[in-house]
Every structure is written in C-alpha cells, then in structure tokens.
Amino acid sequence: MPLYLTFALMLFCFASISSARVVLTLYALNLGAQPSAVGLLVATFYAFPLALSWPIGIVSDRIGSRGLLLFGSICGTCGMLIPFFVRDLPALYIAGTLIGLSFAFYNVLLQNLVGLLSKPQEHARNFSNSSLVGAATNFIGPLLAGFAIDYSGNAVACLYVASLSLAAAVLLALWGGVLPGGTRHAAAAGSIRDTLADKGIVRILVISGLVQVGQDLYQFYIPIYGHAIGLSGSAIGAVLATFAVAAFVVRFGMPRLILRLGEERLLAYSFYLAAMGFLLVPFFGSTVALATVSFMFGLGMGCGQPVTTMLIFSRSAAGRSGETLGLRQSVNNVMRVSGPALFGFVASAFGLLPVFWINALMMAAGGWLARPVAARKSG
Q1: Between 39 and 297, whose confidence is greater?
Q2: Do 2-188 and 192-372 show the same overall fold?
Q3: pTM of the model
C-alpha cells in the first residue's frame, strides 16, 4: 500500500509539474510576453529546486515526508489558482515560483520514498517502475495542458492543473499516515562536508550531473539543429519523441540489465551510447536518420536517471538518504541552469558542431567515470 500510494503521488505530482510548465509558458505568450520574459518565467521553475533540494532532504530525514509533500501539493494548488483569478504576467511569475517550490519537494521526497519502501533486492525493479511513472507523466502532462488550453482557454486550464496537485493533497490527507516517518537521531549528525568526504558519493554526484546536462542539452540543441537544416516543426517533434519512447522502452528491461551487468557497468554503457548519439547527429539531415540516432541516445540516457538515483540511495548513510538525494538534485539543478548557458556561448562563438562533439567527449568521460573501480584502474 505505501509503495502504490507513492506511485500514485508521483503520477499526480509530476503530471502537475509537466502540465504547469506548458500552460504557464503558453499563457505568458498569449499575454504578449517577449521571449526574454518567457525565459525568466521558465527560470522561476528552477529557483527553489536549486536552493532548497538539499535542505528539504535533511528535514525529511528528521520528520518524514508526509507533511512536506502535503505542503508542496498545497503550494502547487495555490500556485495554479492565482493565474485563474489574476490574469497578468506578474501572476504567472508567482505561479511559476510556487510550482517550482512544489517541484523541489516532489523531486526529492518521492524518489526517497521509493528507496525507503523497497528492500535492497527490490531497488532495481521499484526504481525502474518509478521512472516509468515519471516518463508517463512527461507524456500525460503536456497532452492534458494542450487539450485544456484548446477547449477551455489559458485561465481555465490552470484549474485543470491545480486539480492534479489537489488530488495529491487529498491522497496525502487520507492515506499519508502509511508513509514512513523520520529518524531524528540518525539525521541530526552530519553535514554536507561529511557527505562530500565520501569519494564514492562525490563520483555518483558528478555522474548524475553529467546525465542531467547530457539529457537537457540534447533536447535543447536538437530543435536548434533541426531548424538550421530546414526540418519542419513536426519532424523535429518526431525526432524528440523517439528519444522519449526509447527512454520509456529501456526502463522495462532495466531490472534484467542490472542483474546481468550491474548498475555501474550498465551506466557506463549508457554513457557510451549517448556519446555515440551526440557524435552522429551532425552527420545526418533526414528525419528518419536523426530519429534513429535519437532513439539510440534515448536507450542510453533512459537508464541514467533511475540508475544514479538507485546508486546514490544505496550509498547514503543510514537515516540520511533524503539529504543525499536532495544534494543530488541540487547538483543536477546547477548543471541544468549552467549547462545551456555555457554551451550557448560555445554555439554562438564556434557554431553547432563543436557543441555536439564536446558533449560526445563529455558523455564518453562519463562512461569511463561510471565504470566499476576495478575496470577504471585496469583501463
């Protein structure tokens, strides 16, 4: 029951985030916002996750997740109600900030709950299943947002999104008591210095950051490259869709792959596939060829997030898994914010080709770093 509740919360919570991003962005454009204003709106989604993921993890270790998740779902509900009643751009910034706050709670706590509610031998299966739920919400959320806007308008679409967060709040109020509580005595000791003193943890944090920036940059630069070579919007969308489909497909077989290869070797192979994807993109100009490359990239990076989550959880100190997962999310968000800015400068100065090839080298380095220790030493 607690694990199924966690998956249900993931479905509602992450669908609310993915749909809110679409609704608020299109709402802003409908109000006449300039691209710079829309960019600022998108930045509000990541402000709180960047600043608060680690502290949220620490607090959850001490007091449990139910109250924090309930607070996050209330923030998400209220955030999406504001643009319905106040229909101007500043209201969207407030909504985006509150949605970002709710996302900071969801992203750390729900993944931590999957680990806490699973026996060690169940980690591969349950983290894989949770990643499938997350992938499904990336499809459900935008689809719901699009239909809601088309049939009801931007303002009323905010109510649809608010209902998702409200449903999560209702689930937590009725059945949240079955979720595990905190371990105050275990979480009280320790600091970020203690966590970063563990070289194994630091290595996984770096690997996780590379997974995040690899995914984000691929999804950011494929549309730019497609536009540059004259592909239509639907063709670019199809190329990106194959990445999402591949990520969904590979997670079905991930438990068996982990059983056969082990987490670290599977992660290394995933990086090598991603490196090959970045390397090949500039050599192709047709939709079919790029979709094939994109599918290969998705097969690689589709394993990245769930495997790094599993590794970071299994290496966390007793009673401090929330803290460590929160630190992981903070690192990921730093990469999410800084990566596009850095490579945007590279693209402006040197063109698109160096962006893809530098990323290919970066993914290859991630593959070397992800290999088991014995393999790295022998190599």
Answers
A1: 297
A2: yes
A3: 0.76
* pLDDT per residue as tens digits for the range 290-342: 999 989 998 888 888 888 888 888 777 777 777 777 878 887 777 777 776 67
CATH topology of domain 192-372: Growth Hormone; Chain: A; (1.20.1250)
Task: Say if CB 114 and CB 60 are below 8 A apart.
Answer: no
- Dihedral sign for Cα 298, 301, 307, 312, please: negative
State the CATH architecture for 2-188: Up-down Bundle (1.20)
Q: Two tokens at 258?
A: 């982990």
Per-residue pLDDT, 374: 43
User: Would the CA dihedral through 362, 367, 371, 376 be positive or negative?
Assistant: negative
Domain ranges of the chain: 2-188, 192-372
Q: Cβ–Cβ contacts within 10 Å for residue 112, how many? A: 26
Instruction: Answer yes or no: are the C-beta atoms of 102 and 73 closer than 8 Å.
Output: yes
State residue 70's pLDDT score: 96
* Percentage of the chain modeled with pLDDT above 90: 28
The pair of three-digit structure tokens given for residue 226, joined into one six-digit string:
């497609």
DSSP one-letter string for 329-360: HHHHHHHHHHHHHHHHHHHHHH-HHHHHHHHH
